[in-house]
Amino acid sequence: MGERYYHGGFGGLRVGMYVLPPSITKAASTADFGAGTVCRKDRVYITSRFENAMEAAAMHPSGRGRVYEVEPIGEIAVDPDSVMFPGQDPWSWECERAVVVAIHKLRGKDIKRIKKLVGAEFGVLL
After folding, report:
1. Per-residue pLDDT at 124 exceeds 60
2. Which of 17, 123, 125, 126 suits a disulfide with 115, CB 3.0-4.6 Å?
3. In-domain check, residue 53
4. Where are the beta strands (DSSP E) in the chain?
């Protein structure tokens, strides 16, 4: 079996559905909140780290975030933002879209734990 990829985002997708980029869905994007120089609205961001997808899902403003196990479709490229140092292995990629192959619902206690950790990291109470 090859690499597993995950995407943390809005709940509501089912197995077989596509994760599409914000340029198509018109959904709010990280690029809309100050990350426009490192985040493209025409790409779907996926990760090989389940915990990173959990963080994205837990922080989704809808409160209904999910972690989707996905298969990338189209060309896949390393997310330049995921490689901070020469020789570092990437953990995030960008692709045109991805198909959902499994869904992982977050538990309430995991969402609270993640929000507490992220809040502490940025000095805010979430």
Report:
1. no
2. 126
3. yes
4. 5-10, 18-19, 44-47, 65-78, 92-105
